[in-house]
Write a structure and sequence with these properties.
The chain is mainly alpha-helical and 139 residues long. The chain has one domain. 76% of the residues lie in helices and 4% in strands. The protein has 5 helices and 2 strands, in the order αααββαα. A two-stranded antiparallel sheet has the order 1-2. The longest helix is centred in the C-terminal third of the chain and has 27 residues, at 112-138. The protein is globular, with a radius of gyration of 16 Å. It starts with 5 loop residues before the first helix and ends with a helix. The model has no long low-confidence stretch (mean pLDDT 87).
């Protein structure tokens, strides 16, 4: 029988929950990277950071995995930014992918409270300031 540490299960569930929180806002407003994308970015980053942290005592440079996660997130984020007719679209979506990846890494390295706080702040920025931004554009 396969033994899965309870700490790992907590990290998986937290990554899914926090990715869903941020992804819900994106999905609600019909943005390109919605619920599934944000959960998967969060979960993938969490897993890479978790695996990296398993090698701390081996003398391996665990920061290399974190650096490569950020590179990959930049690549994905760059793919959602579009330029047409003198305007740029998708910067918020790219930023969302980036912050979800970093929050996932935070969970993977075991900083749960920090990940929860940043996820809530991210949701407030996306949801609350989105309405403010829309209101300001109308004026």
């Amino acid at each position: 029988m396969l033994f899965v540490p309870s700490d790992f299960i907590i990290k998986v569930l937290l990554a899914i929950g926090l990715g869903a929180l941020i992804g819900f806002e994106r999905e609600f407003f019909n943005k390109p990277a919605g619920l599934r994308t944000n959960i998967l970015v969060m979960l993938g980053s969490m897993l890479a950071a978790y695996i990296s942290s398993c090698f701390v005592d081996s003398g391996t440079d665990v920061t290399r995995i974190a650096a490569n996660i950020l590179t990959g997130l930049g690549f994905i984020g760059g793919g959602v930014i579009l330029q047409s007719k003198g305007s740029v679209h998708g910067l918020t979506t790219a930023s969302c992918i980036w912050i979800c990846g970093i929050i996932g890494m935070t969970v993977g390295f075991g900083y749960y409270i920090e990940a929860i706080i940043v996820s809530v702040v991210t949701f407030i920025v996306l949801y609350g300031l989105g309405y403010l931004e829309h209101f300001m554009k109308r004026k």
